[in-house]
Queue: 2 jobs
Job 1
Amino acid sequence: LESLANAEDVNIAPGVLPLVIRAGGGSVRDTLSVLDQLIAGATADGVSYELAVNLLGFTPENLLDDVVNALAAEDSTTVFRVVDQVVQSGQDPERFVQDLLERFREGVIVHAAPGEAAGILHGMPGDQLRRLEAQAQQLGAAEVSRAADITAAALTQMSGATSPRLHLEVLMARLI
């Protein structure tokens, strides 16, 4: 993917290619199509992380950071403020839960393989990895694992739900 972006003379910001791979869902053809879409939407500066998040519909990192930090601090006010922000900004609550589950997965990896996390979490920018390590440390290994289990179960229940916001709020209550 990096070679293709270079061949097209498009600068790809750190952290974008892992998003492209996730969006491709394991299909090489779909992943190449996603990269092509990002390149088509690139600015003169290339494809920034923020542009990729917006174009691919992923949750902005700052919202995930806010909710995970609030969960670690047992700050329910901030947790529900983030939920409201997700809904009010028009983001898909199910997508938010998918991205939150991915964040907890990364936290599990950081705890399970602290020296190898950077290699396992291919292409994650260093600042993002440091934030993830701090969050995982704050929560603790058992809590990150528990949060991942609860989030995975909630995601299964959310599929096709008529009230995604309600399911998201119940998930947050369980996580708190």
Note: The chain is about 75% helix and 0% strand.
Job 2
Amino acid sequence: ANTITIEQLDIEQEVATQLAIAIENTRLFETEMQRNSELTALHQASLQLTRSIDTTNILDLIVDYALLLTNAEDSHLFLYDGENLAFGAAIWGDDKQTVPIQSPRKNGLTYTVARTGEKIIVPDTKHHSLYKAHPWEGAIIGIPLKANEKIYGVLSVAFNSPHHFTENEIRILELLADQATVALENSQLYK
């Protein structure tokens, strides 16, 4: 008969505990490496954005880094004059684009973010009121580029399927938006 002794059970439990600790340490290490990679990319973005006074270059850099930091499928940036949005830059399919996937709707996500100055996170567009009349399957986040109370524009990042935006992704995009706002302010001051 195969009987397991209390001592064997204790050993197996200890091995399981050590294995769980090793797995958790590996996960924490991978998370730390990811954070370091993101911070390095943010630092690079900051350096490039602050060096540039060319608005077109700044806009292209912002959408580039938004995709780099999130692994999303597309990124758009629209400039806001307090009333209307104007196309700034976009990237999808690994290519810079000269026109948006579609122009912002007056009651859509981008205009709402511009008017309110508040980010909007939509993890599943199929189940969000902003997309009832314009259905598509995906996820999108819109983040205002703002300083004090002035809104300079809206950065959006989208996925082609539902996506849970993590606190880290949101924080990273907000930091990028802050850097982008400073760069746009400097560009306007220079002009």
Note: The helical segments are 6-51, 55-70, 109-116, 167-190.
